[in-house]
Amino acid sequence: MIGLALPPLNIPELLRQYDLRPSKGLGQNFLQDNQALQKIVNAADLSPEEAVLEIGPGLGSLTRYLALSARSVTAVELDRKLFPAMESILAPYKNIRLVQGDILKINPAELIEDAGYVVVANIPYYITSVVIRHLLEADHRPSRVVLTVQKEVAERICADPGKMSLLALSVQVYGKPVIGDIIPAGAFYPQPKVDSAVLCIDLYPQPKIPSDKLDIFFSIIKAGFSQKRKTLRNALSGGLRITTEESEGLLSAASIDPKRRAETLNLEEWGRLVRIYPNRK
């Protein structure tokens, strides 16, 4: 836990000083509450030797705390307009590198060389799933990802069989997600309509599905969830463009009741389908 409490940033005053307005299009809600900032850094459990990749530093509220906890911080921000304010605020911290760009268009290997780096980010809600997949599918993957996301989204990602979703499986195949803490909406400026959660994902050394079969895995789970109200027998038939007889045979070969629905399957059961599917004929 961080012992030093930094002076809080006055976000509304900084925005006025630099003639800035939060962009709704970019989903900008600036985290300003010091207790919330410390919760995120504590959840990241950083050591002084670790390198951090931060996505969407905004005005640098969280970046300052990361700089005190890690060896280095590479902070990637899309909005060019924020840089004059951010550069001024972060000037005292010599272990921070600011990068302007779209994280979804950048290979993490171009930003950070350290193996086992940690990603920490307060990201806009609307890009949560694509950012997670971009990071987890990269060749140069982090060891841990700590994200501030909409509470409901975090709960979906951490779901157990019975409430599984495409998003949950897309994360859980790469690592174990847990909710570290809850951050109330009032910790942000402007205040969003919902509370957030600190989502921590510790990545496995290798995905639970072999890398050369991940494309098949994603094809099958997309098909399974393509018609959520239908049984797997019918959903896989439509999604994979195979006959219902083939679909039923595939499920039976994997010891899965064809009448079950996609949200009830666990990762091991999807893995059995992945192994059988290429050899179904």
Write the layout of secondary structure elements.
Blueprint: H1 11-17, E1 30-31, H2 34-44, E2 51-55, H3 61-69, E3 72-77, H4 83-90, E4 96-100, H5 108-111, E5 118-122, H6 128-136, E6 144-150, H7 151-157, H8 166-172, E7 175-183, E8 188-189, E9 196-203, H9 214-224, H10 232-240, H11 244-253, H12 267-276
Parallel strand pairs: 2-3, 2-5, 3-4, 5-6
Antiparallel strand pairs: 1-8, 6-9, 7-9
Helix pairs in contact: 2-3, 9-10, 9-12, 10-11
What is the CATH C-level name of the largest domain? Alpha Beta
Alpha-carbon distance between the two ends: 56 Å
Q: Which stretches are low in confidence, meaning pLDDT under 50 for 5 or more residues running?
A: none
Number of domains: 2
Give the name of the CATH architecture of the largest domain. Answer: 3-Layer(aba) Sandwich
Stated plainly, the CATH topology of the largest domain is called Rossmann fold
- The fraction of residues assigned to DSSP E strands is 15-25%
What is the approximate shape?
elongated
